[in-house]
Amino acid sequence: MSKSAAEFNKNDDGRPPAHVAIIMDGNGRWAQQKGLIRVRGHRRGVDSVRAVTTECARLGVGSLTLYAFSVENWKRPQAEIRILMNLLKKFLIDERPTIMKNNIRLTSIGRIEDMSADVRKELNATEALSAKNRGMVLRLALSYGGRAELADATKRIAREVKAGRLDPDAIDEETIRAFLYDPSLPDPDLLIRTAGEMRVSNFLLWQVSYSELYVTPVCWPDFRERELNEAFADYRRRVRKFGGLERVTVS
Is 114 one of the catalytic residues? Predict the structure, then answer.
């Protein structure tokens, strides 16, 4: 009996996923479990971002997309939002040496115009500094929501149709992709969610259609290199069929 088609689709060649997306959940829960204020969880979560980003770059991951701040996060108390924005600015400044040392190109997706001017300034500066790097692409999803992305794409498509530049009958999946925040963003091979919640939370709704899902009970502040490699090991045991069937041929 020859190998099944599924065996050829196993991710067991030792390579990491080409594109990893992460829902970084559990900062507040981690702090609460330890009797600490929420900001302590957010601060330690930044250390996890550094560790995971560096490890992904070392392992040869092509793209890493981090759900850093959602459109829904604007509903949080203003004091917490200020803390998160200050941590984001500090990260964008402090991590520039690490980004350059690891040949990482930083970019962002989302309604970036919603961010404050001082955050946009540091974001633009780090993006410009790393623009010529040819290693891993690190995307920060900021003021991001999957439904918001699809709504914004639909508005842009509607404008093109209204202007006569696009035939409605010509609209297909690739047309929609072309109007997303970053058309070059590849579909994630692996979507990781920390802190045990079993949902995608409005993250990359278009792109994760066939992504492998990995949920860990570990809260984000404790998610480091070991936990990342455990997720990759689990991924390598998966069979990706993309809607097809496993077939066994007999010789």
Answer: no
